[in-house]
Amino acid sequence: MKHSIRSVSIIAALIFLAAFSALRAEAQNPGGYFAASAKSNEVVKAAKFAVRHTDGVDADKYSYKKVLSAEWQVVAGMNYRMCVRFKKNGVYTTAMTVVYRDLNGAYSLTGWELAECGLKPKA
Predict the structure, then answer these.
(1) Helices (H), ranges, the chain
(2) Which residues pair with 67 in a beta bridge?
(3) Which one of 4, 26, 84, 91 has the largest count of C-beta atoms within 10 Å of its C-beta?
(4) Are 63 and 50 in contact (CB under 8 A)?
(5) What span, in angstroms and rounded, lies between the C-alpha atoms of 112 and 114?
């Protein structure tokens, strides 16, 4: 009986340590992307900037709808990686985009790719 209680205690302690170590390792991801609220003011500002400044297209034919998902990364400034829903020539579509905000608050578009980015197919 003593051996089984001791064994269970040791196993529980090992599981706790493993879970704690995994959480700690995830929290210490320097330079990595972290989940951001798709509704935060900064994310929405970055997404609207991306839609207005798409590379090589007539941005007047694009209109922002909403951010579907977002992540942020601290660099010398901030990177926002987002899945953005927008209207192009009257048709809704999505793009995976990256917007950089420098330390002075100026935005620049560093990535734009039309993509389904996380949308579930309609049955």
Answers:
(1) 2-27, 41-52
(2) 84
(3) 84
(4) no
(5) 7
What is the pTM assigned to this prediction? Answer: 0.69
Cα end-to-end span (Å), the chain: 56
The tens digit of pLDDT for each residue in 43-64 reads 999 999 999 888 566 666 788 8
User: Counting beta carbons within 10 angstroms of the beta carbon of residue 93, is it exposed (0 to 12), middle (13 to 18) or buried (19 or more)?
Assistant: middle
Distance CA(116)–CA(122), nearest Å, equals 12
CA distance 33 to 69: 12
> Could you tell me the two tokens for 35?
């989940």
The amino acid occupying position 49 is F
Find out whether 71 and 99 touch, Cβ atoms under 8 Å.
no
